[in-house]
Amino acid sequence: MAEKEAIVLVHGLWMSGLEMGLLEQRLRRGGYLTTRFRYPSVTHAIAQNSAALNRFLLTVPGERLHFVAHSLGGLVVRQLLHDFPEQRSGRVVTLGTPHQRSLAAAVLSLNPLLNRLLGKGGEALTSSLPPWQGARDLGSIAGTLPLGMGALLTRLPRPHDGVVTVTETCLPRMGDHLLLKSNHFGLLFSAKVAQETLFFLKNGHFSPRDRIYTQDT
Fold first, then answer.
1. What are the distances in angstroms from CA 58 to CA 53, 55, 65, 85, 173?
2. Closest listed residue to residue 36, CA positions, set 53, 50, 48, 49
3. Beta strand pairing status for 33-37 and 5-10?
4. Please, what are the domains in the chain?
5. I want to staple 15 with a disulfide (CB 3.0 to 4.6 A). Which of 11, 59, 113, 116 is the partner?
6. Distance, C-alpha 208 to centroid of its chain
7. Whole-model pTM?
8. Which residues pair with 139 in a beta bridge?
């Protein structure tokens, strides 16, 4: 089963993919082939990055193809599946992805100097993406530990992970939604995130238990 299934990990804004190394190791121990997709999150628009991801997938083996994406990476995957829907079957797990417009990014964009930090890729955080049609199972994991840069920029509605609010991680027609006590960046290092991600990839939903956990590594 799993040896014929691949997971592509997609990083977020300003990241390189190296920060997903521990998560990748944990997912690989679940029996999956894993690989990381790197892209220029600031200098290229989301459509350019999704097209590059589509080309990258031609090099990825596996009968089924899953995606695990952090923050902006989840929007890249959504754009991919809209623009290039003829992909191998599989599931999607997003970690702290603002599927609705990001308030923190919107505040950042109001300052011309700070807006340059968002770049072309970050524009997707403040604009509307094509609607999610629910063609495949998508699970969204949200953090509730309010520690991060976004909380310094503006007063984010609670609960939030310091960058993205829980409301922003919701998406119509998503398969499941899970809250974990973690901040935005910490989602990548939580053993519970890896555990729940593997559970979702196998079952199409998160584990049926208390949906608030404490942060762990």
1. 9, 6, 11, 14, 28
2. 53
3. parallel
4. 2-203 (3.40.50.1820)
5. 11
6. 21
7. 0.93
8. 93, 176
